[in-house]
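Lab meeting, item 3. Inverse folding demo.
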C-alpha cells in the first residue's frame, strides 16, 4: 500500500467496533453487481436445453449468487486502500471502518468454498469449476493484478463478470456450447464501453486512487475512441447470438434496435470535444452509461422471452 493511499485509509472516520449490522456485511457482497449476476445466470440456466427441476434451479442460482458475493467481499478486502480515496466507494464497509478487513476476507473465503462445493453437489462439477475460476479471476487476476497494473484492466478483467450465463448453462447441461460462449462474449464485449463511459465522468476518482484506468493513462480522447471501437465489435457478437438455438425473433429484433442505439451513443461520445463535455457535465457520457445497463438487461430479457415463447 502506498503512503498516499495508506494515509487516506487511516484518515477515514472510524466507528466503534461492533457497530456493524447485517446491512454492512450484505454490502460487502456488492448486491447491485450480484443482481446482474443472478439475472444473467438465470437466463443462461433457463435457455439451456433439457432443463432442471425448480428446486435444483433455485439452488444453482442461490450458490452462483453467493459465489458472486464472495468475489465482492474479497475485492472489498483487497481494494480498501483504493476505495478509501474514491468518492464513489469511500463509504463501503471496509474503508468506512464498519467492517474489519479481516472479517471481509474471512467472509469472502468462506462463501467461496461454500458456494463452489454446494453448486458442485447440487448440479455438476463443470458448473462448480467455472464458478471457482470466476471467483479466482475476479479476486486474484483482476483485483490483485490487472486493476493496478494496466489500463486494459477492464478489457481482460471483464471476463469475470461474463461467466454467470455460462455457469447457469453448465448447471443444466454439464458442458459449454457455442450459445453459452456467445452469451459470455456479449457481456465481455459490453464491459469496456460500459465502464469507460463511467470513467469519463469519474476520472478524478481513478486519478486520486492511482488506478491506471484508460482515462488516466491515455486520456479522454483515446478513451472515447476505444468506446466506439468496442461498441462496434460488440455488434457481431450480439447478432451472432441471434442465430443460435437459444434465441428467436424477439431477441433478433431487440438486438438490432439496441445495438443501433448503442453504436449511435458511442459515436456521439467519440465526436465530443472535452470542453463541450465538461460544460454540460458529461450529459452524453452519463446517458450512454445508463443506456448500457438497460442494453444488457433487455438483451438477456429478450432471450428469456424467446425461451418462454418456445415453451408455449
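The presenter then showed the designed sequence:
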Amino acid at each position: 500500500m502506498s503512503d498516499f493511499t495508506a494515509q487516506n485509509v487511516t484518515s477515514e472516520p472510524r466507528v466503534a467496533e461492533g457497530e456493524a449490522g447485517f446491512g454492512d456485511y450484505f454490502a460487502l457482497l456488492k448486491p447491485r453487481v450480484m443482481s446482474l449476476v443472478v439475472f444473467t445466470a438465470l437466463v443462461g440456466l433457463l435457455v439451456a436445453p433439457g432443463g432442471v427441476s425448480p428446486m435444483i434451479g433455485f439452488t444453482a442460482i442461490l450458490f452462483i449468487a453467493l459465489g458472486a458475493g464472495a468475489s465482492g467481499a474479497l475485492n472489498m478486502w483487497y481494494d480498501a486502500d483504493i476505495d478509501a480515496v474514491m468518492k464513489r466507494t469511500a463509504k463501503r464497509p471496509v474503508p468506512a471502518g464498519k467492517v474489519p478487513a479481516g472479517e471481509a476476507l474471512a467472509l469472502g473465503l468462506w462463501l467461496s468454498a461454500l458456494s463452489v462445493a454446494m453448486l458442485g453437489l447440487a448440479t455438476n462439477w463443470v458448473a462448480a469449476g467455472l464458478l471457482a475460476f470466476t471467483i479466482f479471476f475476479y479476486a486474484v487476476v483482476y483485483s490483485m493484478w490487472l486493476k493496478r497494473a494496466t489500463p486494459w484492466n477492464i478489457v481482460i478483467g471483464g471476463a469475470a463478470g461474463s461467466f454467470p450465463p455460462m455457469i447457469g448453462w453448465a448447471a443444466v447441461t454439464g458442458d459449454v456450447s457455442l450459445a453459452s460462449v456467445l452469451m459470455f462474449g456479449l457481456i465481455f464485449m459490453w464491459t469496456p464501453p460500459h465502464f469507460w463511459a463511467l470513467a469519463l465522468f469519474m476520472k478524478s476518482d481513478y486519478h486520486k486512487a492511482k488506478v491506471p484506468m484508460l482515462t488516466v493513462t491515455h486520456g479522454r480522447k483515446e478513451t472515447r475512441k476505444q468506446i466506439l471501437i468496442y461498441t462496434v465489435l460488440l455488434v457481431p457478437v450480439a447478432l451472432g447470438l441471434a442465430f443460435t438455438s437459444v434465441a428467436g425473433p424477439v431477441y433478433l429484433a431487440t438486438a438490432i434496435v439496441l445495438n443501433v442505439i448503442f453504436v449511435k451513443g458511442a459515436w456521439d461520445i467519440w465526436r465530443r470535444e472535452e470542453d463541450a463535455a465538461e460544460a454540460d457535465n458529461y450529459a452524453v457520457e452519463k446517458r450512454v452509461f445508463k443506456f448500457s445497463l438497460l442494453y444488457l438487461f433487455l438483451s438477456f430479457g429478450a432471450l428469456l422471452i424467446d425461451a418462454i415463447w418456445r415453451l408455449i
